[in-house]
Amino acid sequence: MSSNKDSKWGDLLAEAKRERAERERSYREKALKLFPHVCGRCGRDFSGKRLSELTVHHMDHDHTNNPPDGSNWELLCIYCHDNEHQRDEVAQAYDQQDAGEEKGSSTTFKAFAGLADLLKDK
Q1: How many structural domains is the chain composed of?
Q2: Is the dihedral of CA 96, 73, 51, 36 positive or negative?
């Protein structure tokens, strides 16, 4: 009985993987038609066999948000794409702040608070 249940889960998982691969091929093909084959970060040009190193980055990180005009996509090389996601992970690990987002100062220390009083005596 457990084997039948495992088989159903295996079939569902396999189908989900196939659908995801098909969806990825679909939006990647569209992105490659819409945009020049250049990394949006480092500016390297990709053609021929190296085109496989160019990936589609979802700017809002939602892989189901694939508008036909490509407004949620940018082409990044595999290195810049990895770096983009690592920056977000590090930022979230430190303070739940998106990478590149400014954070206000939370310090209360005032380095020159007593300077005026010290200079009065001189």
Answers
A1: 1
A2: negative
Those residues with Cβ within 8 angstroms of residue 79's Cβ, 6 or more apart along the chain or in another chain: 42
Question: Token digits for 64?
Answer: 């189901």
pLDDT-derived band at 39 (thresholds 50, 70, 90) equals: very high
Q: What domain range is 63 assigned to?
A: 36-99
22 falls within a domain = no
- Per-residue pLDDT of 75-113, as tens digits, reads 999 999 999 989 888 888 887 655 555 555 566 777 777
Confirm whether pTM is higher than 0.70: no
Q: What CA–CA distance (Å, rounded) separates 54 from 51? A: 5
* Contact between residue 63 and residue 31 where contact means Cβ atoms under 8 Å apart: no
